[in-house]
Design a protein that fits this description.
Blueprint lengths: L1 H28 L2 E9 L5 E10 L2 E7 L10 E4 L4 E4 L1 E6 L38 H6 L3 E6 L7 E9 L5 H4 E11 L17 H35 L21 H10 L5 E7 H13 L4 E8 L4 H7 L3 E3 L18 H7 L4 E3 L16 H10 L4 H6 L3 H6 L17 E4 L10 E6 L2 E2 L5 H9 L2
Protein backbone atom coordinates (compact mmCIF):
# COMPACT_ATOMS: atom_id res chain seq x y z
CA UNK A 1 0.00 0.00 0.00
CA UNK A 2 2.85 2.37 0.92
CA UNK A 3 4.59 1.61 -2.38
CA UNK A 4 1.37 2.35 -4.28
CA UNK A 5 0.92 5.69 -2.50
CA UNK A 6 4.55 6.66 -3.21
CA UNK A 7 4.16 5.90 -6.91
CA UNK A 8 0.90 7.84 -7.03
CA UNK A 9 2.50 10.87 -5.36
CA UNK A 10 5.46 10.77 -7.74
CA UNK A 11 3.16 10.55 -10.75
CA UNK A 12 1.07 13.46 -9.46
CA UNK A 13 4.17 15.57 -8.86
CA UNK A 14 5.49 14.73 -12.32
CA UNK A 15 2.13 15.60 -13.88
CA UNK A 16 1.97 18.94 -12.02
CA UNK A 17 5.51 19.84 -13.03
CA UNK A 18 4.84 18.88 -16.65
CA UNK A 19 1.60 20.86 -16.77
CA UNK A 20 3.39 23.86 -15.23
CA UNK A 21 5.98 23.81 -17.99
CA UNK A 22 3.33 23.45 -20.65
CA UNK A 23 1.32 26.36 -19.27
CA UNK A 24 4.46 28.53 -19.27
CA UNK A 25 5.16 27.57 -22.87
CA UNK A 26 1.55 28.21 -23.86
CA UNK A 27 1.48 31.61 -22.11
CA UNK A 28 4.66 32.61 -23.95
CA UNK A 29 2.83 31.94 -27.24
CA UNK A 30 -0.04 34.23 -26.25
CA UNK A 31 -0.01 37.82 -27.42
CA UNK A 32 0.18 40.08 -24.36
CA UNK A 33 -0.22 43.83 -24.56
CA UNK A 34 0.94 46.06 -21.70
CA UNK A 35 -0.97 49.30 -22.18
CA UNK A 36 -0.80 52.77 -20.65
CA UNK A 37 2.35 52.39 -18.61
CA UNK A 38 5.44 54.57 -18.44
CA UNK A 39 7.99 52.70 -20.55
CA UNK A 40 11.67 53.01 -19.64
CA UNK A 41 13.10 51.68 -22.89
CA UNK A 42 16.76 52.23 -21.85
CA UNK A 43 17.85 52.45 -25.51
CA UNK A 44 15.54 55.17 -26.80
CA UNK A 45 14.24 57.21 -23.90
CA UNK A 46 10.99 57.21 -21.94
CA UNK A 47 7.49 56.77 -23.34
CA UNK A 48 5.05 58.20 -20.81
CA UNK A 49 1.87 56.62 -22.14
CA UNK A 50 3.14 53.60 -23.96
CA UNK A 51 2.15 50.25 -25.36
CA UNK A 52 4.33 47.15 -25.43
CA UNK A 53 3.32 44.01 -27.33
CA UNK A 54 4.81 40.60 -26.51
CA UNK A 55 4.37 37.63 -28.84
CA UNK A 56 6.18 34.29 -29.14
CA UNK A 57 8.52 35.24 -26.31
CA UNK A 58 9.71 38.41 -28.08
CA UNK A 59 8.90 42.11 -28.00
CA UNK A 60 6.73 42.53 -31.11
CA UNK A 61 6.01 46.26 -30.84
CA UNK A 62 6.71 49.22 -28.58
CA UNK A 63 5.63 52.85 -28.83
CA UNK A 64 3.16 55.53 -27.82
CA UNK A 65 -0.43 54.58 -27.13
CA UNK A 66 -2.51 55.16 -30.22
CA UNK A 67 0.49 54.63 -32.52
CA UNK A 68 0.87 50.91 -31.88
CA UNK A 69 -1.74 48.54 -33.26
CA UNK A 70 -3.14 46.09 -30.72
CA UNK A 71 -3.53 42.57 -32.18
CA UNK A 72 -7.00 41.07 -32.13
CA UNK A 73 -7.57 38.63 -29.28
CA UNK A 74 -4.53 39.78 -27.34
CA UNK A 75 -4.49 39.73 -23.55
CA UNK A 76 -4.54 43.37 -22.40
CA UNK A 77 -2.68 44.35 -19.22
CA UNK A 78 -3.75 47.75 -17.91
CA UNK A 79 -0.53 49.42 -16.74
CA UNK A 80 -1.81 52.97 -16.12
CA UNK A 81 0.13 54.44 -13.21
CA UNK A 82 2.79 51.73 -13.55
CA UNK A 83 6.38 51.75 -14.77
CA UNK A 84 7.46 49.18 -17.34
CA UNK A 85 11.13 48.39 -17.95
CA UNK A 86 13.42 45.60 -19.18
CA UNK A 87 14.40 42.81 -16.82
CA UNK A 88 17.42 43.69 -14.71
CA UNK A 89 20.73 41.84 -15.15
CA UNK A 90 23.16 41.18 -12.29
CA UNK A 91 26.74 40.93 -13.62
CA UNK A 92 28.11 38.95 -10.66
CA UNK A 93 26.26 36.30 -8.64
CA UNK A 94 26.78 32.77 -7.37
CA UNK A 95 23.24 31.54 -8.11
CA UNK A 96 23.09 27.77 -7.92
CA UNK A 97 26.61 27.42 -6.49
CA UNK A 98 25.74 28.01 -2.85
CA UNK A 99 22.47 27.57 -1.01
CA UNK A 100 23.39 27.75 2.69
CA UNK A 101 26.76 29.31 3.46
CA UNK A 102 27.37 27.25 6.60
CA UNK A 103 26.61 23.95 4.81
CA UNK A 104 29.70 22.79 2.93
CA UNK A 105 27.64 20.24 0.98
CA UNK A 106 25.71 23.04 -0.71
CA UNK A 107 28.84 25.02 -1.66
CA UNK A 108 30.39 24.67 -5.11
CA UNK A 109 32.04 28.07 -5.07
CA UNK A 110 35.69 27.28 -5.75
CA UNK A 111 38.16 24.47 -6.34
CA UNK A 112 40.96 24.69 -3.71
CA UNK A 113 43.27 22.08 -5.24
CA UNK A 114 45.03 24.59 -7.50
CA UNK A 115 45.29 28.34 -8.05
CA UNK A 116 44.95 28.11 -11.83
CA UNK A 117 41.68 26.40 -12.76
CA UNK A 118 40.46 27.76 -16.13
CA UNK A 119 39.06 24.34 -17.03
CA UNK A 120 36.47 24.54 -14.22
CA UNK A 121 33.03 25.15 -15.73
CA UNK A 122 30.33 26.79 -13.61
CA UNK A 123 27.78 25.04 -15.86
CA UNK A 124 28.82 21.70 -14.34
CA UNK A 125 27.84 22.81 -10.83
CA UNK A 126 24.85 25.08 -11.47
CA UNK A 127 21.83 24.06 -9.37
CA UNK A 128 18.79 25.59 -11.06
CA UNK A 129 16.36 24.76 -8.24
CA UNK A 130 17.99 27.17 -5.79
CA UNK A 131 15.51 29.07 -3.61
CA UNK A 132 17.54 32.26 -4.16
CA UNK A 133 16.47 32.71 -7.79
CA UNK A 134 12.74 33.35 -7.11
CA UNK A 135 13.73 35.91 -4.45
CA UNK A 136 15.77 37.94 -6.94
CA UNK A 137 13.18 37.46 -9.67
CA UNK A 138 10.50 38.94 -7.40
CA UNK A 139 12.38 42.24 -7.53
CA UNK A 140 12.76 42.42 -11.31
CA UNK A 141 16.04 40.56 -11.91
CA UNK A 142 15.58 38.28 -14.93
CA UNK A 143 19.16 37.46 -15.94
CA UNK A 144 22.54 37.09 -14.27
CA UNK A 145 26.15 36.11 -14.70
CA UNK A 146 27.10 33.23 -12.40
CA UNK A 147 30.75 33.21 -11.36
CA UNK A 148 32.85 31.10 -8.99
CA UNK A 149 34.26 32.58 -5.79
CA UNK A 150 37.42 34.65 -5.97
CA UNK A 151 39.88 32.59 -3.91
CA UNK A 152 41.71 31.37 -7.04
CA UNK A 153 43.67 33.58 -9.43
CA UNK A 154 41.90 31.80 -12.30
CA UNK A 155 38.72 30.38 -10.81
CA UNK A 156 36.89 28.97 -13.84
CA UNK A 157 34.49 29.96 -16.61
CA UNK A 158 31.23 31.82 -15.97
CA UNK A 159 27.74 31.17 -17.30
CA UNK A 160 25.00 33.62 -18.29
CA UNK A 161 21.55 32.55 -17.12
CA UNK A 162 17.90 33.42 -17.35
CA UNK A 163 16.05 33.22 -14.04
CA UNK A 164 13.28 30.97 -15.34
CA UNK A 165 13.09 27.93 -17.57
CA UNK A 166 11.92 24.35 -17.86
CA UNK A 167 15.26 23.04 -16.58
CA UNK A 168 18.88 24.05 -16.03
CA UNK A 169 19.75 23.70 -19.72
CA UNK A 170 16.94 26.06 -20.69
CA UNK A 171 18.08 28.57 -18.05
CA UNK A 172 21.72 28.60 -19.17
CA UNK A 173 21.77 31.00 -22.12
CA UNK A 174 25.55 30.96 -22.46
CA UNK A 175 28.20 28.54 -21.22
CA UNK A 176 31.79 29.65 -20.67
CA UNK A 177 30.95 33.26 -21.56
CA UNK A 178 33.86 34.70 -19.54
CA UNK A 179 36.96 33.66 -17.61
CA UNK A 180 36.96 34.57 -13.91
CA UNK A 181 40.39 35.88 -12.94
CA UNK A 182 41.45 37.57 -9.68
CA UNK A 183 44.49 39.41 -8.45
CA UNK A 184 45.21 40.85 -5.02
CA UNK A 185 45.65 40.07 -1.34
CA UNK A 186 42.78 37.57 -1.15
CA UNK A 187 44.43 35.14 -3.59
CA UNK A 188 47.67 34.79 -1.60
CA UNK A 189 47.79 31.42 0.16
CA UNK A 190 49.78 30.81 3.32
CA UNK A 191 50.29 28.08 5.91
CA UNK A 192 48.79 24.79 4.75
CA UNK A 193 48.76 26.08 1.15
CA UNK A 194 52.53 26.58 1.02
CA UNK A 195 52.68 25.03 -2.46
CA UNK A 196 50.83 28.05 -3.88
CA UNK A 197 52.02 31.66 -4.23
CA UNK A 198 51.95 33.75 -1.05
CA UNK A 199 52.97 37.09 -2.59
CA UNK A 200 51.64 39.30 -5.36
CA UNK A 201 54.92 38.68 -7.21
CA UNK A 202 54.24 34.94 -7.08
CA UNK A 203 50.65 35.35 -8.24
CA UNK A 204 51.42 37.42 -11.33
CA UNK A 205 54.40 35.20 -12.22
CA UNK A 206 52.20 32.12 -12.00
CA UNK A 207 49.58 33.78 -14.21
CA UNK A 208 52.18 34.78 -16.79
CA UNK A 209 53.54 31.23 -16.89
CA UNK A 210 50.03 29.83 -17.40
CA UNK A 211 49.44 32.03 -20.46
CA UNK A 212 52.92 31.31 -21.83
CA UNK A 213 52.27 27.58 -21.42
CA UNK A 214 48.98 27.98 -23.27
CA UNK A 215 50.71 29.75 -26.16
CA UNK A 216 53.34 26.97 -26.28
CA UNK A 217 50.55 24.38 -26.18
CA UNK A 218 48.86 25.96 -29.21
CA UNK A 219 52.15 25.92 -31.15
CA UNK A 220 52.78 22.24 -30.38
CA UNK A 221 49.16 21.29 -31.10
CA UNK A 222 49.22 23.01 -34.49
CA UNK A 223 52.60 21.46 -35.32
CA UNK A 224 51.29 18.00 -34.39
CA UNK A 225 48.20 18.51 -36.57
CA UNK A 226 50.34 19.61 -39.53
CA UNK A 227 52.67 16.64 -39.04
CA UNK A 228 49.69 14.28 -38.96
CA UNK A 229 48.37 15.71 -42.24
CA UNK A 230 51.80 15.39 -43.88
CA UNK A 231 52.18 11.79 -42.72
CA UNK A 232 48.70 10.95 -44.03
CA UNK A 233 49.65 12.34 -47.46
CA UNK A 234 52.95 10.48 -47.47
CA UNK A 235 51.28 7.15 -46.63
CA UNK A 236 49.00 7.20 -49.67
CA UNK A 237 49.90 4.81 -52.49
CA UNK A 238 49.94 5.69 -56.17
CA UNK A 239 46.17 5.14 -56.43
CA UNK A 240 45.49 7.68 -53.67
CA UNK A 241 44.41 5.04 -51.14
CA UNK A 242 45.77 5.21 -47.60
CA UNK A 243 48.25 2.55 -46.57
CA UNK A 244 48.00 0.84 -43.20
CA UNK A 245 50.94 1.80 -40.97
CA UNK A 246 51.36 0.07 -37.63
CA UNK A 247 54.04 2.63 -36.69
CA UNK A 248 51.64 5.56 -36.70
CA UNK A 249 52.74 8.68 -34.88
CA UNK A 250 51.58 9.05 -31.28
CA UNK A 251 48.47 11.23 -30.88
CA UNK A 252 48.90 14.70 -29.41
CA UNK A 253 48.12 14.67 -25.68
CA UNK A 254 45.41 17.15 -24.73
CA UNK A 255 45.69 19.40 -21.68
CA UNK A 256 42.29 20.70 -20.55
CA UNK A 257 43.78 23.44 -18.40
CA UNK A 258 45.75 24.98 -21.26
CA UNK A 259 43.01 24.37 -23.85
CA UNK A 260 40.58 26.36 -21.72
CA UNK A 261 42.78 29.47 -22.00
CA UNK A 262 42.93 29.46 -25.82
CA UNK A 263 39.68 31.40 -26.57
CA UNK A 264 40.79 34.08 -24.12
CA UNK A 265 44.28 34.34 -25.60
CA UNK A 266 42.60 34.86 -28.97
CA UNK A 267 40.40 37.62 -27.54
CA UNK A 268 37.24 35.72 -28.44
CA UNK A 269 35.76 36.01 -24.94
CA UNK A 270 36.25 38.47 -22.07
CA UNK A 271 38.40 37.89 -19.01
CA UNK A 272 36.68 39.35 -15.93
CA UNK A 273 39.47 40.43 -13.59
CA UNK A 274 38.53 40.96 -9.95
CA UNK A 275 40.88 43.56 -8.48
CA UNK A 276 40.44 46.19 -5.77
CA UNK A 277 43.55 48.35 -5.38
CA UNK A 278 44.90 50.88 -7.87
CA UNK A 279 48.45 49.46 -7.84
CA UNK A 280 47.11 45.93 -8.40
CA UNK A 281 45.06 47.19 -11.35
CA UNK A 282 48.19 48.60 -12.98
CA UNK A 283 50.07 45.31 -12.49
CA UNK A 284 47.33 43.04 -13.80
CA UNK A 285 46.55 45.31 -16.75
CA UNK A 286 50.21 45.12 -17.72
CA UNK A 287 49.86 41.35 -17.89
CA UNK A 288 46.55 41.59 -19.78
CA UNK A 289 48.07 43.89 -22.40
CA UNK A 290 51.09 41.60 -22.74
CA UNK A 291 48.77 38.76 -23.84
CA UNK A 292 46.19 40.98 -25.60
CA UNK A 293 43.36 39.85 -23.35
CA UNK A 294 39.85 41.22 -23.75
CA UNK A 295 39.36 42.65 -20.27
CA UNK A 296 36.40 43.53 -18.08
CA UNK A 297 37.64 44.98 -14.79
CA UNK A 298 35.65 43.99 -11.71
CA UNK A 299 35.25 45.76 -8.33
CA UNK A 300 38.06 48.41 -8.61
CA UNK A 301 36.84 49.54 -5.18
CA UNK A 302 39.93 51.52 -4.12
CA UNK A 303 41.20 52.66 -7.50
CA UNK A 304 40.49 56.39 -7.40
CA UNK A 305 44.11 57.24 -8.21
CA UNK A 306 44.07 55.29 -11.52
CA UNK A 307 40.63 56.18 -12.91
CA UNK A 308 42.15 58.16 -15.78
CA UNK A 309 44.27 55.15 -16.71
CA UNK A 310 41.22 52.88 -16.65
CA UNK A 311 39.50 55.28 -19.04
CA UNK A 312 42.58 55.34 -21.30
CA UNK A 313 42.62 51.53 -21.47
CA UNK A 314 39.03 51.66 -22.78
CA UNK A 315 37.90 48.63 -20.78
CA UNK A 316 34.42 48.19 -19.27
CA UNK A 317 34.11 47.97 -15.49
CA UNK A 318 31.79 46.09 -13.14
CA UNK A 319 31.47 48.13 -9.95
CA UNK A 320 30.60 46.53 -6.62
CA UNK A 321 30.36 46.73 -3.76
CA UNK A 322 29.82 50.47 -3.54
CA UNK A 323 28.86 50.09 0.12
CA UNK A 324 32.44 49.40 1.19
CA UNK A 325 34.23 51.54 3.77
CA UNK A 326 36.70 54.16 2.52
CA UNK A 327 40.38 53.83 3.38
CA UNK A 328 42.00 56.17 5.88
CA UNK A 329 43.46 58.26 3.06
CA UNK A 330 40.19 58.44 1.06
CA UNK A 331 37.20 60.75 1.20
CA UNK A 332 34.13 59.38 2.98
CA UNK A 333 32.33 59.05 -0.36
CA UNK A 334 35.27 57.72 -2.39
CA UNK A 335 33.63 54.34 -2.99
CA UNK A 336 30.08 55.67 -3.28
CA UNK A 337 31.03 58.03 -6.10
CA UNK A 338 33.09 55.49 -8.04
CA UNK A 339 30.36 54.70 -10.64
CA UNK A 340 29.83 58.42 -11.27
CA UNK A 341 33.55 59.11 -11.62
CA UNK A 342 34.01 56.27 -14.09
CA UNK A 343 30.96 57.29 -16.14
CA UNK A 344 32.21 60.88 -16.18
CA UNK A 345 35.37 59.61 -17.87
CA UNK A 346 33.41 57.72 -20.53
CA UNK A 347 33.91 54.24 -19.05
CA UNK A 348 31.13 51.74 -19.74
CA UNK A 349 30.03 50.50 -16.32
CA UNK A 350 27.88 47.75 -14.91
CA UNK A 351 26.79 47.65 -11.28
CA UNK A 352 26.64 44.37 -9.37
CA UNK A 353 24.71 43.51 -6.25
CA UNK A 354 27.89 42.56 -4.40
CA UNK A 355 27.82 43.71 -0.80
CA UNK A 356 30.57 44.67 1.60
CA UNK A 357 30.50 41.21 3.23
CA UNK A 358 31.95 39.56 0.14
CA UNK A 359 32.63 39.98 -3.58
CA UNK A 360 29.82 37.67 -4.62
CA UNK A 361 26.50 37.07 -2.88
CA UNK A 362 23.29 35.84 -4.47
CA UNK A 363 21.53 36.69 -1.22
CA UNK A 364 22.01 40.37 -2.07
CA UNK A 365 20.99 40.13 -5.73
CA UNK A 366 17.46 41.29 -4.88
CA UNK A 367 19.04 44.63 -3.87
CA UNK A 368 20.54 45.24 -7.33
CA UNK A 369 18.19 48.13 -8.26
CA UNK A 370 18.82 49.88 -4.94
CA UNK A 371 22.58 49.66 -5.45
CA UNK A 372 22.11 51.51 -8.74
CA UNK A 373 19.85 54.02 -6.99
CA UNK A 374 22.52 54.61 -4.36
CA UNK A 375 25.01 55.38 -7.15
CA UNK A 376 22.54 57.94 -8.53
CA UNK A 377 22.40 59.60 -5.12
CA UNK A 378 26.18 60.04 -5.39
CA UNK A 379 26.30 61.58 -8.83
CA UNK A 380 25.72 58.85 -11.43
CA UNK A 381 23.21 60.07 -14.07
CA UNK A 382 19.93 58.17 -13.80
CA UNK A 383 19.99 56.89 -17.38
CA UNK A 384 23.52 55.56 -16.91
CA UNK A 385 22.48 53.81 -13.68
CA UNK A 386 19.62 52.05 -15.47
CA UNK A 387 21.94 51.00 -18.30
CA UNK A 388 24.43 49.71 -15.72
CA UNK A 389 21.96 47.03 -14.60
CA UNK A 390 20.44 46.26 -18.02
CA UNK A 391 21.87 47.02 -21.45
CA UNK A 392 25.52 47.55 -20.48
CA UNK A 393 25.67 44.14 -18.81
CA UNK A 394 24.04 42.45 -21.79
CA UNK A 395 26.54 44.06 -24.17
CA UNK A 396 29.57 43.14 -22.03
CA UNK A 397 28.76 39.44 -22.31
CA UNK A 398 27.46 39.23 -25.87
CA UNK A 399 23.71 39.47 -25.29
CA UNK A 400 23.16 43.09 -26.30
CA UNK A 401 21.15 42.09 -29.36
CA UNK A 402 18.60 40.13 -27.31
CA UNK A 403 18.43 41.63 -23.82
CA UNK A 404 18.73 44.83 -21.81
CA UNK A 405 16.21 47.19 -23.43
CA UNK A 406 12.63 47.43 -24.67
CA UNK A 407 13.29 47.06 -28.38
CA UNK A 408 11.42 45.15 -31.06
CA UNK A 409 12.87 41.70 -31.63
CA UNK A 410 14.47 41.38 -28.22
CA UNK A 411 13.51 38.71 -25.69
CA UNK A 412 10.38 39.77 -23.80
CA UNK A 413 11.94 39.97 -20.33
CA UNK A 414 9.77 42.75 -18.94
CA UNK A 415 8.96 44.11 -15.48
CA UNK A 416 5.85 46.00 -14.33
CA UNK A 417 6.26 47.98 -11.08
CA UNK A 418 4.31 50.68 -9.28
CA UNK A 419 7.13 53.22 -9.35
CA UNK A 420 10.77 54.01 -10.08
CA UNK A 421 12.74 50.74 -10.30
CA UNK A 422 15.67 52.27 -8.37
CA UNK A 423 13.49 53.39 -5.45
CA UNK A 424 13.26 51.11 -2.39
CA UNK A 425 9.60 52.08 -1.97
CA UNK A 426 8.67 50.54 -5.33
CA UNK A 427 6.94 47.16 -5.53
CA UNK A 428 7.31 44.91 -8.54
CA UNK A 429 3.85 43.71 -9.56
CA UNK A 430 4.68 41.28 -12.37
CA UNK A 431 7.73 39.89 -14.14
CA UNK A 432 7.64 38.37 -17.63
CA UNK A 433 10.44 36.12 -18.87
CA UNK A 434 10.33 35.23 -22.56
CA UNK A 435 6.84 36.70 -22.64
CA UNK A 436 5.50 34.40 -19.91
CA UNK A 437 4.32 35.73 -16.54
CA UNK A 438 6.44 34.11 -13.83
CA UNK A 439 4.91 33.25 -10.43
CA UNK A 440 5.49 36.09 -7.97
CA UNK A 441 6.13 33.57 -5.22
CA UNK A 442 9.15 32.72 -3.07
CA UNK A 443 9.78 30.52 -0.07
CA UNK A 444 9.41 33.63 2.07
CA UNK A 445 6.04 34.65 0.62
CA UNK A 446 4.75 31.11 1.15
CA UNK A 447 5.81 31.21 4.80
CA UNK A 448 4.30 34.67 5.17
CA UNK A 449 0.97 33.53 3.76
CA UNK A 450 0.98 30.36 5.83
CA UNK A 451 1.70 32.00 9.17
CA UNK A 452 -0.25 35.22 8.61
CA UNK A 453 -3.40 33.12 8.89
Amino acid sequence: MKKFLLVALLLAASSALHSGRLSAQESAKKVIVISGGRLLTVSHGVIDNGVLVMADGKIAAVGEKGKVSVPKGAQIIDAHGMTVYPGLIDPETNFGLMEIESDQNSRDMSEPSDEIMPHMHVADAFHAETELIPVARLNGITNALVAPASEDTIAGQDIFIQLAGADRDAMILGRDVALAMNYGAEQRRRGAHAAFPSTRMGLVTQLRQAFLDAQDYVAHRDAAAAKKDNLADAKKDDKGDSKKDDKADKPFKRDLKLEALIPYLKGERPVVIGVYEGYDIETIMGLAQEFHLKVVLNHVTHSQDVLDKIAAWKVPVIVGSIYDFPRANERFDAVYTLPAELAKRGVKIAISSSDADGPVSSHSSRNLPYTAGFAVAYGLPYDEALKAITLNVAEMFGFGDSLGSLDVGKTANVVIANGDPLDVRTDVKQVYIQGAAVPMVTRQTKLRDEYSK
